[in-house]
## 1
Amino acid sequence: MTSQASWWERLRNNSLFWPLVALALVMGFNLLFTPNFFRLEIKDGHLFGSLVDVLNRGAPLMLMAIGLTAVIATAGVDLSVGAVAAICAAVATRLVGNVTDVTATPLPLVILVTLGVAILCGLWNGLLVSRANIQPMVATLVLMVAGRGIAQLITDGQIITVYYPPFFYFGAGYLLGLPFTLFIVAAVFLFAWLITRRTAIGLFVESVGTNASSSYYSGVNEKNIKLVAYVFCSFCAGIAGIIISSNVKSADANNVGLFMELDAILAVVIGGTLMSGGRFSLAGSVLGALLIQSVTTTIYAFGVPPEVVLVVKSLVVLFVVLLYSEPMKVALDKLARRKGVQA
Amino acid sequence: MRNLQIDRKYLPLLVTISLFIGLYAFGIVQYRGFGSPQVFFNLLIDNAFLLITSIGMTFVILSGGIDLSVGAVIAFTTVFSAYMLEELGLSPAIVIPTVLLCGVALGAVMGAIIHFFKVQPFIVTLAGMFFARGMCFVISTDAITISNPFYRAVALFRIPLFGKSFISINVVIVLVVLLAALYLAHLTRFGRTVYAIGGNEQSALLMGLPVARTKILVYTLNGFCSALAGVVFSIYMLSGYGLYTNGLELDAIASVVIGGTMLTGGVGYVIGTVFGVLIQGLIQTIIMFQGTLNSWWTKIVIGLLTLVFIGLQSVFSAQSRTRKAAARRRDTAPVADADPVVAARQ
Amino acid sequence: MADAPNILTMRGISKAFPGVQALDDVDFSLHSGEIHALLGENGAGKSTLIKVLTGVERPDRGVIELDGREILAKSPHHAQMLGISTVYQEINLCPNLSVAENILLGREPRWAGSIDWRRLNARAAQILEWLEVDIDVRQSVGMYSVAIQQMVAISRALEISARVLILDEPTSSLAAHETEKLFAVMRKLKGEGLGVIFITHFLDQVYEVSDRITVLRNGKLVGVYDTATLPRVELVAHMIGRNLDELQEMSRYKKDAASSAQKQAVVQARALGRVGSIGPFDLDLHEGEVVGLAGLLGSGRTETANLLFGVDKPDSGTLSVAGAPMTHHSPLRSIQAGMAYCPEDRKADGIVGDLTVRENIVLALQANRGWFNYLAPARQREIADKYIKLLSISTPTADQLVKNLSGGNQQKVILARWLATEPNILILDEPTRGIDIGAKAEIQKLVLTLAGEGKTCIFISSELDEVLRTSHRVLVLRDNAIVAELAPDEMNEHTIMHIIAGGTE
């Protein structure tokens, strides 16, 4: 009896448990009510189907969530991920140019410059937070709003359309029968996992997020840890920007990554990383992003107008945040204890 | 005697007002026609909605909170008003109270969640922002033109002032809101409680002040102001559209910060916010008069100016902290003894 | 005095927290017109008793009567309404509001719904005048000294017509003349028939101002005494309760270590200082010695440590460690130079609560190794286990979250963190504060053992006898400067106290 309880307890305390349960629920719902949701077909050697779609469309969100996990773990937040994606989409398309089958800049250079711009954005945020000591929310809000202005300046207020097929590969290509975006996400995830779990950076991020002052006294350079987190976050958002612009073959400064900040925050919070910082889970954030994407896809599959999704998501955010809030935890603990006493 | 020297707490306000005067003088010297009184009145006319929502935001920030939903609430108000006026053919006498009530309700709900669940204000109001934006598109994805005669009449009505200059009815609404806000902030218990909460919420609670009620009321008040700003904006634009006032939350926060209110709460003045808005308006006007710069530069310049003021604030507060610490150290001459055991053995 | 009527009676108060019986059947009574000192060591139950009285905590059992009527405060505010006001150590005012507002907030005089500022200011000035405090009531409270802020807090309590006033460590950051002023006010309140509960750790002040003393120990009532008839030694015995033998044994350890002092200087500070923090000082630390820093809270002890360890950057002078001058000052550089520092505030600057014991122990070592030279978890566990055993840290496993440990064990985890870096120089700021007497003795022994191994220690504590027991040399600080250095033969409590008190004579 006790071993069973502890087994259950351990499972429940695993940070991936609740996101997995939620994902299973959404999938179960689809199994019952969405025809063909689980059907996979192979066309021209490529895998197709709603599930693949969820993974493919969810790629930018998964990337942003991975990046944002690092920032939130340091007890910060980055509201500028959507705007950074827009800037990077603008830079990439501008560099490729709008001549059919020709690129104005060699593709590797396009990627390098775009990611360089993303890193600059991250440095800006990171320096404001770590060196100028501005609240993360305010510091990144500046880029969230001004960033779209910058993207507009880059695109000259136009929607830039590109016609260079190799550029489309990032967002719409296939490798080994699977969408190429999946490989990008896997690579970034692996990189993030290695850098946080196979070096001391993960420990330092959690330590800074829990208690920055103690970390400083222990010789941890908390400023640089924060800086790196913001740079990494923008870097991920930059990749997301490239994928988005490549997928839709254009960049619209007003719309790329619009309203994605909240999705990304939601993904991280669902994944078990607290907004107050400290312990983080990269896998949890990816699961969170997948959960959000499947909910979105499900809503679309039901023919609900896409406009409603925004409303639904805002309510889900509220629900999840409330679930994790301190008073709710206290209340749930009390409830659990009362049950325990009765048993 | 004491009144003669300028109080340190008015210093940020003075910086703001000087900046406004400086920019205005720059405009007059640099550009022809800038000195015309109507340029100034246009500042008020064009920024009426921003003034109203920024005044509401001032209370939120004074209480130590933040509200990111204001832009979306304004957009929602324009869309919902336009929809009710045009598609449903309702009278403004029903439409205006309804949209104001929506703003109040949304604000109250957000305030209650922030207070009772102790969730950071930015995340709750971010969700509120998405909710309001989403509702815009649920009602209508396209812009709706308002042809209601009452709205048109109000929009076109000019209140003549001296010379050929004039103001709109919106400006009158702003002035009423401003007077009410000044009264609330400085002459009512509600206002002083807002300052107290921003200064030290724990103390306010221990002093027995109605912290819960006040915090919820602050967000409710801001919801009302945003909705009212939305009404003013729909009169100004004579249409409703879900993409209006995107990113306005930063403009409102910027106005408050440039107006000398501390982002950490407790310190600042409603009147400062008015100058904060006017400074933004001036920058916009100068970029317009200049003629060659892209209007997107306005956003970038305002973003930077906000950062400068936030920087100034942290310098100010750091200064007063060290000064106080130094003062305390000077006072601290040794007192008897720190250790009971030692004292007992003497 | 004994005939005076009781205003407040607390009977049979018990309160348990998970794992601790914080209060066990405690009685307390307060007469009208008396100053009653509530004494006890850390963890004795003073603060819990006050929390129960002021409605912060609910008692498990017991009765509280105020003026003969049974009461149970639901919140601090409710307690105030009932007539029980508290002035806390960290004063609960709104620093951004004016003095007058702080006194009358929530009870402002109004005229037709709007606040009547003229009457508000006049009323506040009137109360302060009664307390003989002459300040501008329109200025923000934050501009004034702690002493004035206390007076404002007391004024607020008077304004709500308090019957019982609780002063929680009110004098810990006051200057001597400010303390005198406070005592004058306390006597004045007493004259008005108020009951004052005075919590302090300054025994001199207890004898100067209080009428009766209640002593608590380990959550139990030890006794109630008339101040005039209770000898000090007896009071201390009541408070500590335990024989001091355990601590006195320490001196044997020290002798062995003392002989090894006076070797090479490992730390040399020359005119090192920082404006507003600590005046320029010279300091030589030698291998194998323990140097004590004595002085009051705020005298510059912690500031000295912060400067030596690079937490604060000096703006004058030079510092060299092991012969090499320090050019950049930061904790990391200091760790690299072989230094370690247990800061004063364990919760804020020491432990990282949400991390495990293992992670807390390896944190500084890992910081020293850099971002990429990662200690594998298995190696981390090895190190953690070694120090858990060495310092006998009581934790179920190395993977327990450090916030779940007791104060003493948390302190040991921080010590372990620094020992793991194998430092040559250890700076310990109040390493024994708030931990039980057994753990205290262990830590003191450890310091002497380390010195015996040739390490250098700086030992900072507000408990003078502890400093004397562990140190080979004592530096005395006053007003943010090192004012004296005492050799072993000059080291005694009387001399140190005399030097500390020097400024007021």
## 2
Amino acid sequence: MKKILEVKDLRVHFYTYNGTVKAVDGVSFEVYEGEVLCIVGETGCGKSVTARAITKMIRSPGKIVGGRVLFNGIDILELDEDQLSSIRGKTITYVYQDPSAALDPLYTAGYHVAETVTAHSVGMRIREALRRAVEIFHEILIPDPENRVKSYPHELSGGMKQRVVIATAVANYPKLIIADEPTTALDVTIQAQILDLLKELKGRYGSSVVMITHNLGVVAEMCDRVIVMYAGKIVEKAHTERLFENPLHPYTKGLLNAVPNPYRKTMRLESIPGVVPDMINVPEGCRFRPRCPFATNACLIEPELIEAEKDHYVSCWLTSKVGQQ
Amino acid sequence: MRWSQKGSTVLNNLRMLIQLTNEWKLILLVIRKSPLTTAGLVIVSGFVILGIVGPYATLHDPIMISVTGALKRLHPPCLEHPFGTDEYGRDLFSRVLYGARVSLVAALSVMVIAVPIGVLLGLCSGYYGGIVDEVIMRITDIFLSFPGLVLAIALSASLGAGLTSAIIALAVVWWPGYVRVIRAQVLVVKEMLFVEAARAIGVKTSKILFRHILPNSITPLLVLITFDFGSVILANSALSFIGLGAQPPIPEWGRLIADGRRWFPDKWWYSFFPGLAILITVLGFNLLGDGIRDMMDPRYRRSIEMKG
């Protein structure tokens, strides 16, 4: 399979009054054509920042301090603002978490789609673009598209708004859709519909999807490969089935145990003890050490991300010892 | 019993109808429910209409001194001269009407100059932040550190007395206020997700500023402009009161008050009516400004709807 996106050693720091927050600290991964890659992790582990950094959407006080983002061989981080805006919305697009906030309340649903279309086709009028918006609404199964393009965001339901946001994302047949928790703000029945829609669109337009989520159900449903992030670093990277069958990192195990299992009778749901570390004073060595039930002295040295089995990477001393034996 | 039930459903339907109505109907509702806003609106529209057609509607020439007029120097208010006459026998009613136009022109010109400058600088300052923000805001602070009217007097005097120099002076004093208001709004709006979403679909920065950020920041600007209309009229009158601004024989309200001082309180009407005109006009703009704020701000609007 062809790599379309390659992120190498990405580092994003936020310069706050209390000190430097290393929100993303040396993250590397790749996205293949037509696949769905999930990034999972707790709140504040750097998932969204990674996603935004892919098209250099980090704003002050954040700064991309290192790394490369190769998209079809071009380093996006070296492009200027003009070149970036010709990529954003055209080849790489975003679907946001909160559809009510992602739509400008002063413009109609159709205008949002039309704006994307006109931004990337020279000389196209808003009126022509609105016709295109109707087509897209039709394609993504928004009922009564002729009238819905004229609706304002406050006149639409949450699920419908998310469909409009998805419509703006797919309007230019993007190569890569970055979906930042696209279903978090929606109720469960709508979540399933939106996931189905994304899956279908991905197939129809041949796009790849980077899906950011903290919902392991979404991961199991949608993803080909999974990246588990913890405190700004990748702790485990594997194919979805492998990760669920054989989680290697204690953090991943903890996450999976924290999901209620209907086939097993348990009185209490397990949780991972402790809280996400303070990102200004990150723990020395392995960042999961203070919360890890298996921590040893070896964990004071930071483990590398190594290939424990084929296409299954993990950064934990436990696994590498297992590997040595 | 039955009838009263029917009555209450009708009432409920009415209430629902009111809730379902669009912005225009809300404005109509405010007009009905808030007599002060309506009064402000009436005064302001009256002022604007008089400013446009007033000089053509007067019976007497507001500027030329007629031969017969000389016989009626400082005549008290009567049927022919409702506001009396001045020391040259000119009809004060006509002069006050003409003054409305001078004030309207002055206030409009000041806004046309000051608002775009303020909006542009405020947008850049708020959106780009950093060094751009620092430079623009410190320059703005320099202008704000002088008392407005004193700076206007100094500028107007150094440019030479006249309506144009008064307008320029007032515009120079007024733009910093708009920079601040717009900047504060932009700081809030630019953090909203739809701005990032617009950036993420490749919309150019200038379009983001003018299509997304400005329209979403416009409410306090509209309110401020309405209030400032009154303040500019007042400041312009103050300038002409001390001899700057519009020069005779053009009648300006502040100037008329100043001219009438010589005869006050004996010939009270000379200063009284121009003063009344200023009072009513400025009051009208303030009442309207209050009303607009109530309509635009959902927190206040709620109170209106509750009342309604």
